[in-house]
Amino acid sequence: MTASIPPGPPPQGAFVQGSPAFSGPLPQEGPSLLQLLLILRRRWRLLAITWAAVVAAGAVYTFSQEKLFRPQATLEIRPETPLVSSEVVDAALRPSQLMWENYYRTQEAILTSPTLVQAVMKSLPDVDRDYKDLPDPVRAFNSKVEIEKVRTSFILKVGFVDKDPVKATAIANSLVRHYLDDANRRLRDLKSGAAELLSKETLPAIRAKVDEADQALQAFQSEMGFIDFEVHYKSLTSARQAFDARLTEIRLRRARIRAEVDALSTYGANGVTGLFNPGFHSTQGLAPLAGQRSKLAADLARERKVLKDKHPRILELEEELGAVERKIRESIEGTLHSLQTDLKAAELEEKTLLEDQGKVDRQIRDAGRNLNRYRRLESELASAKEVYSSYVKKQGETTATTGSTLGSVRILDDAMAPAVPYRPRVLVNLALSAVLGFLLGLGLIVVTEQIDGRIVSAREVEGFVGLEVLATIPKLSRAAKGGALVLDESSPLSELESFRTLRAQVLTRIGRTGGGKVVAVLSPLAGEGKSTVSVNLACVLAMEGRKVLIFDADMRRPVMSRLAHAADGPGFEPVLRGEIQIDQAISPTSIPGVHVLGTREGTSSSAELAGSPLFENALRYARDRYDFVIVDSAPVMLVSESTLVARRADAAILVVREGQTGRSAALSARRRLETMEVRVLGAVLNCSHHSDSGYGQYYS
Q1: N or C: which end of the chain has fewer CB within 10 A?
Q2: pLDDT, tens only, 132-147
């Protein structure tokens, strides 16, 4: 037996795909200002306690420290510069100039060297008695020496920390004076050694290099005959240019002769071909003959128009024309012979010039190599002389300043006994403690938020999930009827009013639609009170005289029949199998005006059943016969069919439990519903501990 509900179009007012899905925009990526304020509002006690504890610890540490004094002397320490400047800088000395940046560090190491410290302690008997019995006197002494750098300058401030300001002053002054004496001694030793090294080793070696470079240059000049390489190279270059000019001239002449030969060779037997070539007219003697031939040819043509071919006059003109033709040909042959002789002479001269030019090119290459070698040897000699001259100047400078003191290090200010303690610095330490406590408190808040991200207020639902809270439901007290959390007229007014508020919000937001209204009640995870909210929402809707059906769509773990005390019946399973009709599966409950349609036992094929046409027909049947249909679906983040069920409803409500539901889970549930285009009216904050005040508390 199958269900008798034919499929049809959805009723007017039902949710249609593409309609607005959410009551508010999704929260932006990353924390917003509202979310930060909500986190601070929730965790301000942790921040305050951490800040107070760190400040208190800083205060205790500051005021428990003994009073210490730090007198300090001021030194000017700059790199030593030569008294005599040298124009030539040896490339081997350039790396030392780049090491001046480490000069500060070197002087600090000297100021705390064991030799200098022991000299200071021996000069002050009281100090020597204080430190000589310690395991490491030098280390203990240096632990109280403080060297302060003045940036972008050559200033060092040397201080000594001690309880006795007079003793600390004496130690600081003795330390800088011993440092200055030691620096002068080291300078004298260094310059004496440098002068001796320059005289005995460096200068003789450089002089030997100068002599070696000079001998190499002299040997090369002797080998080449002491010629002037520059003049020789320039003369060869000039000869090469002269060869190029003469070769160009010969080639032009050869081309001209060849053109004349070609022009005269084209002269034809008809006396016309080649006659107008410029080469023909440039040949001496050919131009008059050519004019005479043209005149005779014209006379012959004129006479032939009058006389016959055998006329004596015609024969006379033809004989004269033939004689001129023979003279022209004899002249051309003679001219061609002369031109060919000139052409051969030009070609021979061109060949000779090319051979001579090749010889000059080879001489130029040899001269260029010799000139480069001469310049290199000359440059090596000049460089060796410059290095030698530079080291001679350095030797003179070093010898002149051997007995002088260090002018680049001097004491600017002696240490004076301070009147104000150096430690503790109360204000500085307290300020640092306050900043550190605030930062540590913020860090603990971040760590705590990563560990515990549960929702604890309605503002957090709006700030982190982006849904408006329709109602805040307090933790319900158990009623007398079997201990079920179902409201009735005898329930506490605060609990009853919270669901009445939810009812008013649902009725206002779902709008005016024809037929029954289907509302899906969802939750992100299990155990958040979704079923309790569903049954009590149905209860308060029925209190106004409406017919309400609770559709238990959580077919994996159905609880509505037990929660609403429904009468025994066949359940929804036979309807989905097509064994009975839908009206036979609906059971009345102990709540007036409320019926239940649901399964008795869970099934593993709930996802397939929720998507079947029978499920959709059952929902359409309930919409046609009831004012409200409350669909209690499975948790959104745990099962797949809950979004399919919610998609068939007019609207949905997301239930979150205070102190249990995580923000990420609630936001993920909302995004999953958005993907399926489910219209979410808002959220319900369940099991709240902040709703026993106000209207309900006053009137109870």
Answers
A1: N
A2: 888 898 898 988 888 8
Residue 78, CA atoms < 13 Å, CB-side half-sphere: 11
Give the C-alpha separation, 556 to 576, whole Å.
14
Is the pTM here over 0.85, yes or no?
A: no
Query: Which is nearest to 559 in space by CA: 498, 486, 644, 626?
Result: 486
Encoded tokens for 165: 């300001």
**Alpha helix positions (H), 155-228:** 165-197, 203-223
Token pair recorded at residue 403: 């007995």
Q: For the chain, which residues make up each domain, given as ranges?
A: 44-65+424-451, 72-196+403-413, 229-400, 455-699
DSSP conformational letter for 465: I
Q: How many CA atoms lie within 13 A of 476 on its CB side?
A: 26
Q: How far apart are CA 343 and CA 357, in angstroms?
A: 21
End-to-end alpha-carbon separation of the chain, Å? 53
Q: Which helix (H) or strand (E) holds 326?
A: helix 312-400
AA letter at 443 = G
- Write the CB contacts of 37 (distance below 8 Å, at least 6 apart in sequence): none
**Whether the bond into 424 is cis, omega within 30 of 0:** yes
| Measured distance CA(361)–CA(12) in Å, rounded | 107
User: For the chain, what is the largest distance between any 2 Cα atoms, rounded to a whole number of angstroms?
Assistant: 168
Q: Which CATH architecture has domain 455-699?
A: 3-Layer(aba) Sandwich (3.40)
